Amino acid sequence: MVKLMSNNYLDFLAAIKNEVVRVPEVSISEKALPYGQQLRFTRGEETVILSIYNGKRGIKTVWGGANDDLREALSTQMESLLIKYTGVQPAAKQLPACSILEECAGFTGTWAGSDESGKGDFFGPLVVAAVAVNKAVAERLRVAGVKDCKLLSDKEILRLEPIIKAIALEFVVLSMKPEIYNYRYAQLRLQNKNLNNLLAAGHVAAIDKLLAAEANCKMVLVDQFSQNSGIKRALIAKYPEVIVIEKTKAEEDIAVAAASILARANFLSVMQELSVIAGYELPKGGGAQATKVAKLLSEQQGLPFLDKLVKKHFANYKKIN
After folding, report:
1. Cα–Cα distance between 260 and 247 in angstroms, integer?
2. 158-185 pLDDT, tens per residue?
3. Helix H or strand E encompassing 11
């Protein structure tokens, strides 16, 4: 609950509405209250309510609604207003830095992150995405609800995909459908290489294309999947001025989180395409259900039919015959 000077009521109310319209996909409806106004904020199926009362002891604001993500996004937008109208810093939790690179030497405020999706899924593509942001863009993405895609539902991932694409400085999404994936993987095995080499090549290709388009980006963060991926070496050979860092749990960084969402959104889209081809809704992951559906399709369509649907080096494939 926050108290304000009563003669600031109308200005404060107008400022809130003007600020909130900047939050992507949030709509506002109003309802009159005794001695105040109720603002209902909606984003998709999420709803939170802010009741603002103008009483004898000043203005009071009270939040309602259980959606913490949307409430946090709106509260973030309003922090500066609370300071302006009260002169007091609100006692809200400190937001994390937009990037885990901020304490690194050479950080200029513009950076890129990359991540992949589909490497653990028997059906579907392998997708690598890279996203370039600066601090202002990163804050907008955070307000929109961007976080590690593993913390989001498929519906939220698909909602955030166009927002990220509209806000990011640059983005690249590279998708390798099963037929191409299986061909490339077979080539690598002939060279005594493995999945990590295929992943590394995908990250390098996506980041290379991103850096060519965004000249101000001089720092790259990659979600680490191998101690010796070769990504840093390959990128620095072409972009010697760029700092490349590989780190586990890099999805804490907003650029990597955004990349994880774009990669997963593309994975979901391709899975839908492949499900139409298969005539079944294809299961995600690499569990028993994936093996069951693949075996059924093999019996109905023949084993070669799976070439366009599955990653053939998975253990699931050996269980089909």
Report:
1. 14
2. 999 999 999 999 999 999 999 999 999 9
3. helix 9-20
